[in-house]
Amino acid sequence: MRLLDLLQMNTSYVRCSGVELFTAEGDVILDFLSGYCVHNAGHNHPYIVEQLRDELSRCGPAMLQSHVPDLAGELARRLCQLAGGEMRKVFFACSGSEGIESAIKFSRAATGRSGLLYATGAFHGLTCGALSLMGDDFWREKFGPMLSDAAAVPFGDLAALREQLATKKFAAFFVEPIQSEAGIRIPGLEYLREAKRLCARYGTLFVLDEVQTGMFRTGEFLAARHFDVEPDMIVMAKALSGGLVPCSAVLMSDKVYESVYNSLKRSIIHTSTFSENALSMRAGLATLDVLERENLGERALVMGDSLRARLRQELSGYEMVRDVRGMGMLSGIEFQPPSKIGLRAPFEAFTRIHEGLFGQVLVMRLFRDHRILTQICGNNFMVLKVAPPLVVTEEQLDKFVGAVHAVVDLMHTSASFWTEALGLARRVMNV
Ligand SMILES: Cc1ncc(COP(=O)(O)O)c(C=O)c1O
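Above: the input record for the complex with pyridoxal-5'-phosphate. Below: its predicted structure, written as tokens.
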């Protein structure tokens, strides 16, 4: 609360619809964060809300835990169909982290190995197992020890991956097809396919974390499609249940599934109380209906390309803008330290106080001056993440481009931008 107060972002929201957030003061804020890629179908999509109402009115077996939950079967079937490849079975859970924890256990059961490999810069979640697959000390401090058998390889480095895999110690290699929190890092076209090939060669499962990138965020149902790669397991969450009910899913092959649930005695060896609850399952089905019927993937592809083209055009010539990149409706604007002396001094004074504050000032300015909600990437403070709901309109994108342009221009031309930023930085450090 104190942080939101300082950033002047502590607002009370009374209603959220599509891309719009209505505040108690009568303002409308445009959501370009989507709760970190939760609201792909837009906030409170009327069809998903109606389906959830119907499900509640049905008074069915919502969490009986002693029956075959039809809705879970139906959602699993549709997810596997959309994912294609070897995906045949689904374990449902409640969060992305829980999905990752499950995939850790399943990969160990399937291979009989304990080692876990992950890529530098990754964000896989903050439970202890998932956190063991994230190298950034910031997230781990005071929470250790982590799982001892986890090791990191640089994202995109196939030689390092091969070297680790060749030890044959690793049950799984966990990787995001596009690293979101690391700064919307998109690997070369060959990286994932070759990584999968190497994993297969050395008996390691190739596990894709599509928690942020899945559910048509990047234009395809899975970002894996852009790279033509077929994983052994896929973890999905966030947008899976329309931003209304927590839900995650681990998709896997029959072979992985059989290695875990391989006897009657082990039929409940890995479960979770809320796992297949009817509301999450109904929300998942309704969300898929919306994303498919409204062609939101195709829309994300086309509109995402045009958004990035416009951002590149508007921001070209500003020395602190390094790159605009992304796929579908997941983009990042990367900033860099200025070289002009007049800008360098305040920038350096500012980042000496805290490296994350520069991005927070951008976020604050966009929010306060332009009524647009964004955030910087969790593991790369120089990248502003741009991820509106996939139902975003051309007009809303125009407004965003204009707002970013105005803030970037101010940053390059106005001394008061830096005076205010330094004042904020000092206040943050004193709290
Ligand atoms: C790529 C990725 N994986 C996993 C997670 C963890 O998901 P959750 O916060 O639902 O546990 C996140 C959360 O931001 C994520 O971005």
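Notes for the reader.
The first strand starts at residue 13 and ends at 17.
Residues 48 and 116 are 37 Å apart (CA to CA).
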